[in-house]
C-alpha cells in the first residue's frame, strides 16, 4: 500500500455527500469570470474542455467514468496541456498525489491519475487560491461547484485531517 491518507470506512457516507452547489445539466454559466477552474473527473473535464477558456483550466482525470474505462472527449485540446501523472488508489490520497495537486495549480495542466481521482478535490480546494473554482462530478446527479473561499479551504483541511495516515508497506 502507498503512503498517504486513508478514508476510514466510518466516514465514507459523510464524505460522499455533495459539497457546494449541485447542478445537473450545463454548469458553465455559473462560473465566475476570473480565477483558475479545476475540473475533477472525466465527464466534468470533457464539459470544461469544451466550454471554459483553456487559459484558466486545470483538469484532474483518471480515464474512468463510474469506475469503467472512459474516453475523455477533448476535441484535440488536451495536447496544449502540461501532463503530470500520479498514482492514487481508491479511498485515499497518496502523499505524492497531494503534492502533485498542490504544486500544479496552474492553467493548462492535466493531472492524469492512475487509480482514482475522487478524493483529490480536497487538496485541490485546500491548495487553490481564494476566488478559484473547483468542479467535481457526481455520478448520476451532475456536478458540484465550489468557489474557493477561506471557509471552503478550512472545510477541506478539516476533511483532510479526518483521514488516517498510513505508511508504505515494504517487502521483507
How many alpha or pi helices? 5
- Extract low-pLDDT stretches: none
Find the count of extended strands (DSSP E, 2+ residues). Answer: 12
Beta-strand proportion: 25-35%
**How far from one another are the termini?**
14 Å
Major sheet characteristics: 7 strands, mixed
How do the SSEs run, as a string of H and E? EHEEHEEEEEHEHEEHE
> What gross morphology would you assign?
globular
The spatial strand order of the largest sheet comes to 2-11-10-3-4-9-7
Provide the helix percentage.
Answer: 25-40%
The overall number of domains is 1
SSE class? alpha/beta
Overall pLDDT: 91
Radius of gyration: 15 Å
Question: Explain this structure to me?
Answer:
The protein has a 7-stranded mixed beta sheet with strand order 2-11-10-3-4-9-7, sandwiched between helices. The protein is built from 5 helices and 12 strands. It has one domain (19-24, 34-166). The longest helix has 13 residues, at 150-162. The model has no long low-confidence stretch (mean pLDDT 91). β10 and β11 (142-147) form a beta hairpin. The chain has 172 residues and is an alpha/beta fold.
Q: Secondary structure elements and their pairing?
A:
Blueprint (H helix, E strand, L loop, with lengths): L3 E3 L5 H5 L4 E3 L13 E4 L1 H10 L5 E5 L2 E2 L2 E2 L12 E7 L3 E3 H9 L5 E7 L5 H7 L5 E6 L3 E6 L2 H13 L1 E3 L6
Helix pairs in contact: 3-4, 4-5
Short description:
This protein has one domain.
Highlighted features:
single chain, 172 residues, alpha/beta, seven-stranded mixed beta sheet, three-stranded antiparallel beta sheet, 5 helices, 12 strands
Amino acid at each position: 500500500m502507498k503512503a498517504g491518507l486513508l478514508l476510514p470506512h466510518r466516514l465514507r457516507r459523510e464524505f460522499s455527500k455533495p459539497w457546494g452547489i449541485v447542478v445537473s445539466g450545463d454548469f458553465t454559466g455559473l462560473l465566475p469570470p476570473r480565477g483558475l477552474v479545476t475540473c475533477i473527473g472525466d465527464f466534468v473535464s470533457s464539459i470544461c474542455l469544451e466550454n471554459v477558456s483553456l487559459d484558466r483550466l486545470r483538469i484532474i482525470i483518471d480515464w474512468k467514468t463510474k469506475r469503467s474505462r472512459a474516453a475523455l472527449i477533448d476535441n484535440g485540446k488536451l495536447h496544449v496541456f502540461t501532463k503530470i501523472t500520479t498514482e492514487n488508489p481508491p479511498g485515499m490520497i497518496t502523499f505524492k498525489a497531494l503534492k502533485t495537486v498542490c504544486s500544479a495549480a496552474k492553467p493548462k495542466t492535466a493531472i492524469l491519475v492512475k487509480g482514482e481521482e475522487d478524493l483529490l478535490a480536497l487538496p485541490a480546494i485546500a491548495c487553490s487560491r481564494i476566488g478559484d473554482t473547483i468542479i467535481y462530478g457526481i455520478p448520476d446527479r451532475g456536478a458540484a461547484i465550489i468557489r474557493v473561499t477561506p471557509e471552503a479551504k478550512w472545510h477541506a483541511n478539516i476533511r483532510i485531517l479526518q483521514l488516517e495516515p498510513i505508511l508504505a508497506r515494504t517487502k521483507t
